[in-house]
Amino acid sequence: MATLKSKIFAFLRDEEGLTTVEYAIAGGLVGAGAILAFSNLGGEVARVIGDMFTALETVTIDTGGGTAP
Q1: Contact criterion met (CB below 8 Å) for 35 and 43
Q2: Using alpha carbons only, how large is the chain's radius of gyration in Å?
Q3: Residue 66: which residues within 8 A CB-CB, separation 6 or more?
Q4: Where are the beta strands (DSSP E) in the chain?
Q5: pTM of this prediction exceeds 0.70
Q6: How much of the chain exceeds pLDDT 90, in percent?
Q7: Separation CA 45–CA 37 (nearest Å)
Q8: Positive or negative CA dihedral for 18, 21, 27, 32?
Q9: What pLDDT, on the 0 to 100 scale, is given for residue 40?
Q10: Burial code of 18-57, b = ≥16 C-beta within 10 A, e = fewer?
Q11: Is pLDDT larger for residue 2 or for residue 34?
């Protein structure tokens, strides 16, 4: 356990550029965060997107733009 702890601290102190593995880990964390956020906000996000589509359809109808065939 002490070895893992020392490696984590060594990783945090490392100020060299990111390696491919570190980019993959960072990308995975960002992706996991996005999935977690969307899963927790899923219903609200779907409602807002639906409202945006409704607003866009209303604007199209009001300007006489119609719909594509």
Answers
A1: no
A2: 23
A3: 60
A4: none
A5: no
A6: 16
A7: 10
A8: negative
A9: 83
A10: eeeeeeeeeeeeeeeeeeeeeeeeeeeeeeeeeeeeeeee
A11: 34
User: What six digits make up the tokens of 7?
Assistant: 């490696």
Q: Which two tokens stand for residue 65?
A: 């733009």
DSSP code, position 32? H
What tokens appear for 64 in the block?
A: 């006489």
Read off the pLDDT band of 43 (50, 70, 90). Answer: confident
pLDDT at 51: 92
Closest among 33, 10, 42, 17 to 2, alpha carbons compared: 10
Tell me the torsion sign for CA atoms 31, 35, 41, 42: positive
State how far the alpha carbon of 44 is from the alpha carbons of 35, 49, 51, 67, in Å: 14, 9, 11, 27
